[in-house]
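hey so i finally got around to running both of the ones u sent me last week. sorry it took forever, my laptop kept dying halfway thru and i had to restart like 3 times lol. anyway pasting them below in the order u listed, first the sequence line then the structure token line for each. didnt double check formatting much so if smth looks off just lmk and ill redo it

first one:
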Amino acid sequence: MVNLGPFQLTMNQYGTVKMLFLALLVILALIAIALVVKPKIQRRMAAKKGADVTPENA
């Protein structure tokens, strides 16, 4: 048994919770990366089209 305060979990349940937590962290990391990378990609696409790339329309 793993004792986490009021939560009494068997090792199997603890493993499942740990996997869910890791999956959540991975999803959050992917969202953060997407938010950072997306504007750069959009700017590059606009530059390729020959559009005027300024902070206003980036």
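and the second one:
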Amino acid sequence: MSWSLPGHMKLPYIKSLIKNKTGILETSIFFVILDSNFKLKQNIFEKLNNENVEVKSLCSLKDCNIIAFEIVPEATDSCPVFALNRNDHFNDIYIIKAIDGVTSFFFGMPLVFQYRPSITKVSDFYKDVYNRLSQYYLKDGNKNSTYNRAVDASEHLRGRYPFEIVAVDNSFEWCAICDWTKFCRGCSIEELGEFVSSDIRNIAIHWKPSSLYLNYQSVMDLMCADDESVEREKEEYRKPVSLTTCLNEFVKPEILDDSLTCNFCSKKTKMEKKFQIQRQPNILIVNLKRFVYIPSSGWVKSRKAIEVPFTNFTIVSNGYTYECYAIVNHYGAIGGGHYTAYTKVNNKWYIFDDSSYTTVNIEEVDVKNAYMIFYKKQE
């Protein structure tokens, strides 16, 4: 499913959108946020439970995956447990960051399982995890004819599982049971007793190396069925927005965040800010707000395409009409980039790029990357 949302939207609103589309109750929707490496963002757990938090404050737009789960308790005493697929690589040379010589890598979609503390058997929990992951696991009958059984290290498991389930903390790298001085990567839940312990909140599905590389179908782990809204929103996003729409958004009334003292009643109240065009100029310069500051991402550039009318542009009803005579484009990001300019001289359009210039047809004028647009009143 897909929606285009402004950054100030809050999580309860997203839950309501999901409910309206799927019928899932808001109380059954659980959010987690992962980075591009599918590593859990630990520092925002508390924010996810705050109904007033805005989406833009949760994570960077460049490094953010917001995942929604439906969790319907299987019993009144059921507990959810969050899981990530993990594979550990051993380093020949290592430093304090990987003091035990192991670096953990995470892959695939995150998963949520349920168990009943001191009731769910570890053996049954293993079966549940395996059944959920079986769609990614290549069965013997589907293996390539060149498959060599002699090199499959999982053969020694004798019918058991191609992974080990270990109890971990929120980092999914370190054990949730052992003291940190032991540098334990996670105790096997089999070693903790016959039944799943109530202390377990996160697990790492630690794959055996050969099982992972020979049997796991990594191409399948992130596949999902797109709702028709996904393509619809992509098409909508790719559509250019008109310059008139930008102008209307600029002059639209805005409620200020901070309350101010009213000049009439002397009470603190919300104030409205509004821009108005008092006089139509002969020369109109439009500076597009391409750079926006987002708390979790810093300054980011909007690459939204703009429809720029070359003639008969108006800023008020029944007012002057304007024709475009110059456009400045910006390519790149805020920290660096390149400017070019198009200018109309004696009814011919020219492109100026550093010290060079050449004539172009009006159809060749790049308006999608416009940063500043210059108009003059039409005679």
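quick thing i noticed on the 2nd:
Residues 74-239 form one domain.
anyway thats it, ttyl
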